[in-house]
Design a protein that fits this description.
This protein has 14 helices and twelve strands. By secondary structure, it is α+β, with helices and mostly antiparallel strands. The longest helix is centred in the N-terminal third of the chain and has 23 residues.
């Protein structure tokens, strides 16, 4: 038997000859407001609904804005996250979370709001999209755990999305030769050699000092102990590496050993790669060094010049084999583009192609997770249909022979 509701005995008021039940409640701002109903049951339902709305509004007003809570969450992360990681988190939170959602109360954010905020992010790379979604989920799950929100709007947002990131292939032997010929004797040469033949990350190369390069040992090697990053464009060298696995000793092939011997003889700096003053490169200085490679490629590019105070854009469309119009020492010899990471990717790919076992590749690459190594390993080792044909065909031939014998 259903339990009857205990409905209060409300007062009444007559309006235009009609009797209404009336009561007063306080709204979210503390102001007394009157509610009316033709029956006590109708008025009771109105009071219940109004109280729910008032309670919800008060709850929402007590929650922080997205900007306030995101900044608090970042501050809490700073206790156990690397400085460079914090820089990345802070930049993404500011540009992709606070900018579109910062003015809203945490409790007011809906799933549609999250999806709308992610639209411009979807135009970025897959890694950026994934990183922003991860930060959104972390922030809102933290708020949910602390009872600041009732509904988590990120629960049904997929972690992956946006435009799939195109994986750049490693450099071919021919491209490596062309690249090294193009920059021989130029500032990026040693950097490129360390990427191609030691597989170091950019921050590991720019943080490398001569005290970690052992050229006179029976087996020459280098030790990865330091990393480079910049703060306000100024270089900072730290012993805090990307992961624990990043700390490693890497044997040097002969070509790299000879390159480093020559570089050390001419060096007056403690850094293997340095600026003219012998100091670690700033971010701007590194970009200038890398520009030696870009300017020798056939990549179309636009630059700005000022003529009589007027800003004029120029587009350069290089032709392979020709010289640059404003610099006869620059010849467009590279019909491909290169990134620092591609040098490292080429190193890892070459190890795998030479049948180096996955655990050794993982160590030399400084991968903390074997999954990263095995994903690359599978693509390189097994994405060879011609080589795999004999293996696959042989396996099924043996199976068919076995079936025939049983018959």
């Amino acid at each position: 038997m259903a339990r009857r509701r205990q409905i209060p005995k409300y007062g009444t008021v007559v309006h235009n000859g009609v009797t209404y039940y009336r009561t007063r409640i306080r709204d979210a701002g503390g102001k007394r407001v009157a509610l009316y109903g033709k029956t006590r049951e109708e008025l009771y339902d109105k009071v219940e609904e109004a109280n729910r709305q008032i309670e919800d509004k008060i709850f929402r007003q007590k929650t922080p804005t997205v900007k306030e809570y995101a900044e608090k969450w970042l501050y809490m992360q700073s206790a156990h996250v690397r400085y460079t990681t914090m820089l990345d988190y802070t930049s993404k939170v500011k540009n992709y979370i606070v900018q579109p959602l910062g003015h809203m109360y945490m409790a007011d954010v809906t799933q549609d709001d999250i999806k709308m905020a992610l639209v411009p992010v979807s135009k970025k790379s897959e890694s950026v999209y994934h990183s922003v979604v991860m930060l959104l989920k972390c922030i809102f799950y933290s708020a949910e755990d602390n009872h600041l929100i009732r509904e988590n709007p990120t629960k049904r947002i997929p972690s992956r999305g946006g435009v799939p990131e195109k994986e750049k292939p490693p450099l071919t032997d021919e491209q490596v030769e062309m690249l090294l010929d193009a920059i021989k004797g130029l500032p990026p040469y040693v950097f490129v050699m360390l990427g191609l033949y030691a597989g170091l990350r950019r921050e590991e190369i720019l943080g490398l000092k001569w005290d970690c390069v052992f050229l006179d040992e029976e087996v020459p090697y280098l030790s990865v102990k330091r990393a480079w990053h910049t703060e306000r464009n100024r270089p900072v060298i730290t012993e805090q590496l990307k992961t624990k696995a990043a700390k490693r000793d890497i044997p040097l092939p002969d070509c790299l050993t000879e390159c480093l011997r020559e570089a050390k003889e001419q060096s007056k700096s403690e850094f293997v790669v340095c600026n003219r003053g012998g100091e670690a490169l700033s971010y701007t200085q590194f970009r200038r060094v890398w520009q030696y490679i870009v300017t020798r490629s056939t990549k179309e590019r636009t630059y700005v010049r000022y003529v009589n105070g007027e800003k004029i854009k120029h587009t350069v469309t290089p032709v392979l084999g020709e010289k640059a119009k404003h610099n006869n020492t620059v010849v467009y010899t590279l019909d491909f583009q290169v990134t620092p990471h591609e040098l490292r990717h080429t190193y890892i790919t070459n190890l795998i192609a030479a049948s180096v076992d996955p655990k050794t590749v993982q160590y030399l690459a400084g991968h903390e997770s074997s999954k990263i190594t095995m994903d690359i390993y599978a693509k390189v080792k097994y994405n060879r249909p011609k080589e795999l044909y004999a293996v696959v065909n042989g396996a099924f031939e043996q199976r068919q022979l076995g079936l025939l014998k049983t018959e």
